[in-house]
Amino acid sequence: MRGFLSFSARILISGLLLYFALRSIDFGEVRVRFLQSGAGWFFAWMALAVAVLIFQILLGSLRWQEISRFCNAPLGLVQAFRYNMIGTFFNQTLPSTIGGDAVRLWLVHRTGAGWRFATYSILVDRAVGLIALALVVVLSLPWSYQLIANHQGRLALVVVDALAITAGLGFLILGRLQWRWLKTWWPTKHVHACAVIANQVLFSRSTGPKIVVLSLAVHVATTVVAWCAARAILASADFEQVFLLVPPIVLITMLPISIAGWGLREATMMVAFGYAGLVQSDGTMVSLLTGVTAFVAGAIGGLIWIAGPEKADRSKDPIPAAIE
Protein backbone atom coordinates (compact mmCIF):
# COMPACT_ATOMS: atom_id res chain seq x y z
CA MET A 1 0.00 0.00 0.00
CA ARG A 2 2.86 2.37 0.83
CA GLY A 3 4.43 1.76 -2.59
CA PHE A 4 1.11 2.31 -4.33
CA LEU A 5 0.54 5.60 -2.49
CA SER A 6 4.07 6.78 -3.31
CA PHE A 7 3.62 5.91 -6.98
CA SER A 8 0.22 7.62 -7.08
CA ALA A 9 1.67 10.74 -5.46
CA ARG A 10 4.44 10.88 -8.07
CA ILE A 11 1.93 10.55 -10.89
CA LEU A 12 -0.12 13.36 -9.39
CA ILE A 13 2.91 15.62 -8.94
CA SER A 14 4.14 14.93 -12.48
CA GLY A 15 0.69 15.62 -13.89
CA LEU A 16 0.21 18.88 -11.99
CA LEU A 17 3.68 20.18 -12.85
CA LEU A 18 3.26 19.25 -16.50
CA TYR A 19 -0.10 21.04 -16.59
CA PHE A 20 1.50 24.09 -14.96
CA ALA A 21 4.35 24.10 -17.49
CA LEU A 22 2.26 23.38 -20.59
CA ARG A 23 0.01 26.34 -19.82
CA SER A 24 2.94 28.62 -20.70
CA ILE A 25 3.29 27.33 -24.27
CA ASP A 26 1.92 29.38 -27.11
CA PHE A 27 1.40 26.57 -29.60
CA GLY A 28 0.59 29.07 -32.32
CA GLU A 29 4.05 30.60 -31.92
CA VAL A 30 5.61 27.13 -31.92
CA ARG A 31 3.82 26.34 -35.18
CA VAL A 32 5.04 29.59 -36.78
CA ARG A 33 8.62 28.83 -35.81
CA PHE A 34 8.36 25.29 -37.13
CA LEU A 35 7.10 26.59 -40.47
CA GLN A 36 9.89 29.17 -40.60
CA SER A 37 12.68 26.70 -39.93
CA GLY A 38 11.23 23.72 -41.75
CA ALA A 39 10.97 20.08 -40.77
CA GLY A 40 14.48 19.35 -42.01
CA TRP A 41 16.01 21.89 -39.60
CA PHE A 42 14.00 20.55 -36.64
CA PHE A 43 14.71 16.87 -37.21
CA ALA A 44 18.40 17.49 -38.00
CA TRP A 45 18.93 19.20 -34.63
CA MET A 46 16.89 16.55 -32.81
CA ALA A 47 18.90 13.78 -34.48
CA LEU A 48 22.08 15.53 -33.34
CA ALA A 49 20.64 15.72 -29.80
CA VAL A 50 20.04 11.95 -29.81
CA ALA A 51 23.57 11.33 -31.11
CA VAL A 52 25.07 13.55 -28.39
CA LEU A 53 23.01 11.79 -25.73
CA ILE A 54 24.24 8.38 -26.87
CA PHE A 55 27.80 9.77 -26.85
CA GLN A 56 27.14 10.96 -23.30
CA ILE A 57 26.08 7.44 -22.35
CA LEU A 58 29.35 6.19 -23.84
CA LEU A 59 31.30 8.70 -21.72
CA GLY A 60 29.39 7.53 -18.67
CA SER A 61 30.24 3.94 -19.59
CA LEU A 62 33.95 4.77 -19.70
CA ARG A 63 33.67 6.26 -16.21
CA TRP A 64 31.66 3.32 -14.90
CA GLN A 65 34.21 0.90 -16.36
CA GLU A 66 36.99 2.60 -14.37
CA ILE A 67 34.91 2.70 -11.18
CA SER A 68 33.82 -0.93 -11.48
CA ARG A 69 37.43 -2.10 -11.19
CA PHE A 70 37.70 -0.49 -7.74
CA CYS A 71 34.46 -2.22 -6.71
CA ASN A 72 35.61 -5.77 -7.61
CA ALA A 73 33.00 -5.82 -10.37
CA PRO A 74 35.09 -5.23 -13.51
CA LEU A 75 33.27 -4.49 -16.76
CA GLY A 76 34.40 -4.23 -20.36
CA LEU A 77 33.60 -1.02 -22.24
CA VAL A 78 31.12 -2.67 -24.61
CA GLN A 79 29.51 -4.43 -21.68
CA ALA A 80 29.21 -1.22 -19.66
CA PHE A 81 27.79 0.64 -22.66
CA ARG A 82 25.18 -2.05 -23.29
CA TYR A 83 24.12 -2.03 -19.65
CA ASN A 84 23.88 1.77 -19.61
CA MET A 85 21.75 1.78 -22.76
CA ILE A 86 19.47 -0.87 -21.26
CA GLY A 87 19.30 1.19 -18.07
CA THR A 88 18.25 4.21 -20.11
CA PHE A 89 15.39 2.15 -21.53
CA PHE A 90 14.15 1.10 -18.10
CA ASN A 91 14.50 4.65 -16.77
CA GLN A 92 11.86 5.60 -19.33
CA THR A 93 9.55 2.61 -18.84
CA LEU A 94 9.58 1.85 -15.11
CA PRO A 95 7.65 4.06 -12.67
CA SER A 96 10.62 4.44 -10.34
CA THR A 97 13.32 7.08 -10.91
CA ILE A 98 15.97 4.42 -10.16
CA GLY A 99 14.49 1.65 -12.32
CA GLY A 100 17.42 1.77 -14.74
CA ASP A 101 19.94 1.53 -11.90
CA ALA A 102 18.13 -1.50 -10.46
CA VAL A 103 18.36 -3.26 -13.82
CA ARG A 104 22.04 -2.32 -14.19
CA LEU A 105 22.65 -3.74 -10.71
CA TRP A 106 21.01 -7.01 -11.69
CA LEU A 107 23.00 -7.20 -14.92
CA VAL A 108 26.33 -6.62 -13.14
CA HIS A 109 25.41 -9.21 -10.52
CA ARG A 110 24.86 -11.76 -13.26
CA THR A 111 28.47 -11.31 -14.41
CA GLY A 112 29.53 -13.00 -11.17
CA ALA A 113 30.36 -9.85 -9.21
CA GLY A 114 27.71 -10.49 -6.55
CA TRP A 115 25.05 -8.18 -5.20
CA ARG A 116 27.29 -6.19 -2.87
CA PHE A 117 30.00 -5.24 -5.33
CA ALA A 118 27.48 -4.71 -8.13
CA THR A 119 25.59 -2.29 -5.88
CA TYR A 120 28.78 -0.50 -4.91
CA SER A 121 29.68 0.09 -8.56
CA ILE A 122 26.27 1.68 -9.24
CA LEU A 123 26.24 3.82 -6.09
CA VAL A 124 29.81 5.07 -6.49
CA ASP A 125 29.18 5.86 -10.15
CA ARG A 126 26.12 7.89 -9.19
CA ALA A 127 27.92 9.61 -6.33
CA VAL A 128 30.89 10.63 -8.48
CA GLY A 129 28.51 11.99 -11.10
CA LEU A 130 26.64 14.01 -8.46
CA ILE A 131 29.87 15.41 -7.03
CA ALA A 132 31.02 16.48 -10.50
CA LEU A 133 27.65 18.10 -11.19
CA ALA A 134 27.80 19.97 -7.88
CA LEU A 135 31.30 21.16 -8.80
CA VAL A 136 30.08 22.44 -12.17
CA VAL A 137 27.19 24.30 -10.54
CA VAL A 138 29.39 25.88 -7.86
CA LEU A 139 32.17 26.93 -10.25
CA SER A 140 29.65 28.54 -12.61
CA LEU A 141 27.84 30.35 -9.78
CA PRO A 142 29.41 33.81 -10.38
CA TRP A 143 28.13 33.84 -13.98
CA SER A 144 24.77 32.16 -13.33
CA TYR A 145 24.16 34.59 -10.46
CA GLN A 146 24.59 37.47 -12.91
CA LEU A 147 22.36 35.79 -15.49
CA ILE A 148 19.44 35.41 -13.08
CA ALA A 149 18.11 38.85 -12.14
CA ASN A 150 15.20 37.64 -9.99
CA HIS A 151 15.95 37.68 -6.24
CA GLN A 152 14.01 34.47 -5.55
CA GLY A 153 15.77 32.76 -8.43
CA ARG A 154 19.17 33.77 -7.08
CA LEU A 155 18.26 32.54 -3.61
CA ALA A 156 17.08 29.20 -4.99
CA LEU A 157 20.30 28.86 -7.00
CA VAL A 158 22.48 29.52 -3.94
CA VAL A 159 20.48 27.04 -1.83
CA VAL A 160 20.76 24.32 -4.51
CA ASP A 161 24.51 24.98 -4.84
CA ALA A 162 25.05 24.87 -1.08
CA LEU A 163 23.11 21.64 -0.63
CA ALA A 164 24.85 19.96 -3.55
CA ILE A 165 28.39 20.82 -2.55
CA THR A 166 27.69 20.02 1.11
CA ALA A 167 26.34 16.59 0.21
CA GLY A 168 29.30 15.87 -2.08
CA LEU A 169 31.96 17.01 0.37
CA GLY A 170 30.20 15.27 3.25
CA PHE A 171 30.20 11.99 1.33
CA LEU A 172 33.93 12.25 0.60
CA ILE A 173 34.74 13.22 4.18
CA LEU A 174 32.76 10.21 5.39
CA GLY A 175 35.13 7.97 3.44
CA ARG A 176 38.12 9.49 5.28
CA LEU A 177 36.74 8.76 8.75
CA GLN A 178 38.12 5.70 10.51
CA TRP A 179 35.54 5.27 13.26
CA ARG A 180 34.96 1.58 13.81
CA TRP A 181 31.19 1.83 14.16
CA LEU A 182 30.93 3.32 10.67
CA LYS A 183 32.32 0.07 9.29
CA THR A 184 30.24 -2.30 11.41
CA TRP A 185 26.84 -0.67 11.94
CA TRP A 186 24.51 -1.87 9.17
CA PRO A 187 22.94 1.52 8.29
CA THR A 188 26.38 3.08 7.70
CA LYS A 189 28.80 0.33 6.68
CA HIS A 190 27.79 0.16 3.01
CA VAL A 191 27.59 3.93 2.60
CA HIS A 192 31.00 4.23 4.24
CA ALA A 193 32.42 1.54 1.96
CA CYS A 194 31.13 3.41 -1.09
CA ALA A 195 32.59 6.66 0.23
CA VAL A 196 35.98 4.98 0.67
CA ILE A 197 35.87 3.71 -2.93
CA ALA A 198 34.84 7.15 -4.19
CA ASN A 199 37.91 8.66 -2.52
CA GLN A 200 40.13 6.01 -4.05
CA VAL A 201 38.66 6.61 -7.48
CA LEU A 202 38.85 10.41 -7.40
CA PHE A 203 42.23 10.81 -5.69
CA SER A 204 44.13 8.05 -7.47
CA ARG A 205 46.90 9.45 -9.67
CA SER A 206 46.14 6.92 -12.38
CA THR A 207 42.36 7.21 -12.55
CA GLY A 208 41.45 10.47 -10.79
CA PRO A 209 42.14 12.89 -13.68
CA LYS A 210 40.41 10.57 -16.14
CA ILE A 211 37.32 10.25 -13.92
CA VAL A 212 37.12 14.03 -13.43
CA VAL A 213 37.42 14.76 -17.15
CA LEU A 214 34.84 12.11 -18.06
CA SER A 215 32.42 13.34 -15.39
CA LEU A 216 32.67 16.96 -16.50
CA ALA A 217 32.31 15.90 -20.15
CA VAL A 218 29.11 14.02 -19.28
CA HIS A 219 27.55 17.19 -17.89
CA VAL A 220 28.73 19.30 -20.81
CA ALA A 221 27.04 16.77 -23.10
CA THR A 222 23.81 17.23 -21.14
CA THR A 223 24.01 20.94 -21.89
CA VAL A 224 24.69 20.28 -25.58
CA VAL A 225 21.56 18.09 -25.78
CA ALA A 226 19.44 20.89 -24.32
CA TRP A 227 21.09 23.43 -26.63
CA CYS A 228 20.31 21.26 -29.67
CA ALA A 229 16.68 21.16 -28.54
CA ALA A 230 16.73 24.96 -28.22
CA ARG A 231 18.16 25.33 -31.73
CA ALA A 232 15.52 22.96 -33.09
CA ILE A 233 12.72 25.37 -32.08
CA LEU A 234 14.73 28.56 -32.79
CA ALA A 235 14.76 29.52 -29.11
CA SER A 236 16.65 32.71 -28.29
CA ALA A 237 18.85 31.05 -25.65
CA ASP A 238 22.52 30.83 -26.59
CA PHE A 239 24.91 28.08 -25.49
CA GLU A 240 26.35 30.03 -22.55
CA GLN A 241 22.88 30.66 -21.11
CA VAL A 242 21.90 27.02 -21.52
CA PHE A 243 25.19 25.91 -19.94
CA LEU A 244 24.52 28.06 -16.87
CA LEU A 245 20.87 27.04 -16.49
CA VAL A 246 20.86 23.30 -17.18
CA PRO A 247 23.19 21.90 -14.44
CA PRO A 248 21.17 23.37 -11.52
CA ILE A 249 17.99 22.10 -13.19
CA VAL A 250 19.50 18.61 -13.45
CA LEU A 251 20.28 18.75 -9.72
CA ILE A 252 16.70 19.71 -8.88
CA THR A 253 15.18 17.03 -11.11
CA MET A 254 17.13 14.37 -9.22
CA LEU A 255 14.60 14.75 -6.43
CA PRO A 256 12.51 11.53 -6.44
CA ILE A 257 9.13 13.25 -6.45
CA SER A 258 7.97 12.68 -10.03
CA ILE A 259 7.93 9.96 -12.68
CA ALA A 260 11.33 9.85 -14.43
CA GLY A 261 11.65 13.61 -13.81
CA TRP A 262 8.65 14.44 -16.02
CA GLY A 263 6.80 17.52 -14.90
CA LEU A 264 9.47 18.60 -12.42
CA ARG A 265 11.97 19.09 -15.24
CA GLU A 266 9.52 21.07 -17.39
CA ALA A 267 8.33 23.31 -14.57
CA THR A 268 11.88 23.98 -13.37
CA MET A 269 13.13 24.74 -16.88
CA MET A 270 10.20 27.07 -17.49
CA VAL A 271 10.85 29.00 -14.28
CA ALA A 272 14.63 29.10 -14.88
CA PHE A 273 14.17 30.52 -18.39
CA GLY A 274 11.88 33.18 -16.97
CA TYR A 275 14.37 34.11 -14.24
CA ALA A 276 17.09 34.46 -16.90
CA GLY A 277 14.95 36.85 -18.95
CA LEU A 278 14.23 34.26 -21.64
CA VAL A 279 10.87 33.12 -22.99
CA GLN A 280 9.32 30.76 -20.44
CA SER A 281 7.51 28.69 -23.06
CA ASP A 282 10.88 28.07 -24.74
CA GLY A 283 12.11 26.53 -21.50
CA THR A 284 9.12 24.20 -21.41
CA MET A 285 9.57 23.18 -25.03
CA VAL A 286 13.32 22.61 -24.58
CA SER A 287 12.60 20.41 -21.58
CA LEU A 288 9.94 18.42 -23.43
CA LEU A 289 12.24 17.87 -26.40
CA THR A 290 15.06 16.83 -24.07
CA GLY A 291 12.68 14.27 -22.61
CA VAL A 292 11.80 13.08 -26.12
CA THR A 293 15.51 12.70 -26.84
CA ALA A 294 15.91 10.52 -23.76
CA PHE A 295 12.89 8.50 -24.83
CA VAL A 296 14.42 7.85 -28.28
CA ALA A 297 17.74 6.82 -26.73
CA GLY A 298 15.78 4.62 -24.34
CA ALA A 299 13.99 3.00 -27.28
CA ILE A 300 17.37 2.12 -28.78
CA GLY A 301 18.33 0.66 -25.41
CA GLY A 302 15.10 -1.34 -25.50
CA LEU A 303 16.11 -2.85 -28.83
CA ILE A 304 19.48 -3.80 -27.31
CA TRP A 305 17.62 -5.42 -24.41
CA ILE A 306 15.27 -7.35 -26.70
CA ALA A 307 17.99 -8.50 -29.09
CA GLY A 308 20.61 -9.32 -26.45
CA PRO A 309 21.07 -12.23 -24.07
CA GLU A 310 20.74 -10.13 -20.90
CA LYS A 311 17.04 -10.77 -20.36
CA ALA A 312 17.38 -14.56 -20.44
CA ASP A 313 16.11 -16.35 -17.34
CA ARG A 314 15.78 -13.09 -15.38
CA SER A 315 12.92 -14.56 -13.32
CA LYS A 316 15.33 -17.09 -11.79
CA ASP A 317 17.48 -14.38 -10.23
CA PRO A 318 15.32 -11.61 -8.76
CA ILE A 319 16.78 -8.39 -7.39
CA PRO A 320 16.89 -8.50 -3.58
CA ALA A 321 15.37 -5.83 -1.41
CA ALA A 322 18.57 -5.23 0.57
CA ILE A 323 22.27 -6.00 0.71
CA GLU A 324 23.56 -7.97 3.63
Using brief descriptors, characterize the structure shown.
single chain, disordered C terminus, mainly alpha, 79% helix, 14 helices, 324 residues
Q: Could you characterize what this model shows?
A:
The protein is mainly alpha-helical. It has helices at 2-22, 27-37, 39-70, 77-93, 99-113, 115-139, 141-147, 151-176, 180-184, 186-203, 208-232, 239-253, 264-275, 280-307. α3 (39-70) packs across α6 and α8 (151-176) crosses α10 (186-203). The longest helix is centred in the N-terminal third of the chain and has 32 residues, at 39-70. Residues 320-324 have low confidence and may be disordered.
List the helices and strands and how they pair.
Layout (H helix, E strand, L loop, with lengths): L1 H21 L4 H11 L1 H32 L6 H17 L5 H15 L1 H25 L1 H7 L3 H26 L3 H5 L1 H18 L4 H25 L6 H15 L10 H12 L4 H28 L17
Helix pairs in contact: 1-13, 3-4, 3-6, 3-11, 3-14, 4-5, 4-14, 5-6, 6-8, 6-10, 6-11, 6-12, 8-10, 10-11, 11-12, 11-14, 12-13, 13-14
